[in-house]
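Morning run. Coffee first, then this:
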Amino acid sequence: MPSPNRRLPHPAAGAAAITLAAILAMLAPGSAFAEPVTLAEALSRAAASSPTLAAAEADVAAAVGRAQQAGFRPNPELGLEIENFAGTGGFSGVDDAESTLSVGQRFELGGKRPARERAAQAEVDAARLRLAVARADLEQQVRDAYAEAYADSRRVELARDQFMRADNLQTIATELVDAGREPPLRALRARTAALEAVGRVRAAEAEYAEAQRALAALWGGGEELPEPTAAETPAAPSSVIDPASALDVRLAEAEVATSVAVVERERTLSRPDVTVSVGARQFRGTDDTALVFGASMPIGLFDRNQGNIVAANAERTGAEARRNAALAGAIRRTRDAQAALRTAEAQLAFLETQAEPEAIEAVRIAREGFSAGRFTLLDVLDAEEALNTVQADMITAELERAQAVAALTRATETEGSAQ
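And here it is:
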């Protein structure tokens, strides 16, 4: 029979230890389908298999084909005419038939072909800039997705560390309850904190898997999920570029140039062409042959291409407005990215040098005081929660810094650097 002065252990302590031990075994890091991937590899894979880039490259090839077609002259026309046969009287047969074989050629006047070539070449230049924009956008998406996946992997590690600390605190609380120094409610509260930490691990793992799938989707995905190996945040661009040299502004300028060339092309189409033909006519009745010459030109009475000229001028006006908007947008994006980078770096420096060391020290003091009976379990949990918040904020600040660098790199992208 146990001594009446001996305090019995909390009835849930044994089951709690067994349950948490089993949970701890399930929280082993790593994934059977994880594939370590560096940022450079992620960028290379996305560039090699991105449907967006494939479509932009096809658009360039199509524009080149249209430019080639624009340089061709009109084809000559071969004509055959047979007259004065299968009629009545003396024309009932083919004895008096007349046949004419001719070759005609349409001559483009008013500079149509050079204007057509200039417009087509302008479209090629714009298509190549759209490809550069698509490539720059894709690189920013990969950098953002890679940084997000790496941050989520850090959050998984942090959640597991929090579980380890909560499990250790639950063990200490159980021992103090068994020793009679704490009421049984303290052990139950510590166990609840450990189970809450398990929930955070599960949520962090789910978010990490989602971020991995989002990253893999940029190059088509696969069974193996990419596992970022490091933050790999490059240095922020140090040089300040002229906003007019930004990639988006260069594209807007190319679209303006295209619209101007299209206006000139449509104006040339209002000028008539001349078709000249020459041939030989045979008179079957006398077996004589004579030359035939002809020329024709449309009369610009109704259709002078005026509707297309109006439309082309309106498109030019719109292109110029979009260029102005692109210039203003380039300035704003650059300034926003620079401000976001400064804020993230200042926040990260504060957390690393001040907040985290103080939070770690507060947890150490609270745990030692709790073991010695000077502090309560709630004091320790408050200190742990403060440390968890600081460490989570550090991961978020690192992510925001990486995203700000990616945004600044994209905002200062030029045509040469995007190749």
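The first helix runs from residue 13 to 26. Good start to the day.
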